[in-house]
Amino acid sequence: MNRRIAIASDHGGVELKAFLKQQTYAQPIEWIDLGTDSKESVDYPDYGFKLAEYVASQQAELGIAICGSGIGISIACNRHEDIRAAVCTNSTMARLTRIDNNANILCLGARIVGEILAKDIVDAFLDTPFEQGGRHERRVNKLKRTT
Fold this sequence. Notes:
By secondary structure, the protein is of the alpha/beta class. It has a single domain (about 5-140), classed as Sugar-phosphate isomerase, RpiB/LacA/LacB (Ribose 5-phosphate Isomerase B, Chain: A, 3-Layer(aba) Sandwich), CATH 3.40.1400.10. Helix content is about 40%, strand content about 20%. The chain is built from 6 helices and 5 strands. Helix 4 runs parallel beside helix 5 (about 115-125). It is globular. The protein starts with a strand and ends in a 5-residue tail after the last helix. The mean pLDDT is about 95.
């Protein structure tokens, strides 16, 4: 069975997004591409919000968001109360954000990481489960809004 992974980028991440979709992963992936598809300037919040809603509604298991630095789109994704989006610049960060934070969206900076490093980061993110129970689950639950 294919994993459903949603992916979105602004114009700064469109090439890295295309590269990542062409790669081979441990499990087959059904990519849900939420745009953009060109280098024409667009606003990253539009794509971050769209991706966050898609992942939060469980239409995809996880998401990958890409902009120039990864920061802007991560801020947009994290505006949704059910999203834990993390900018990662190496595979250790990607593994830890899944294990410790149960991050459901990986954010990448196309101008920060190259293609090979990005592939390594995505592999780590997709292959690492959340450690349920104990201190990590307690802390992630505290991130939910209570008001």
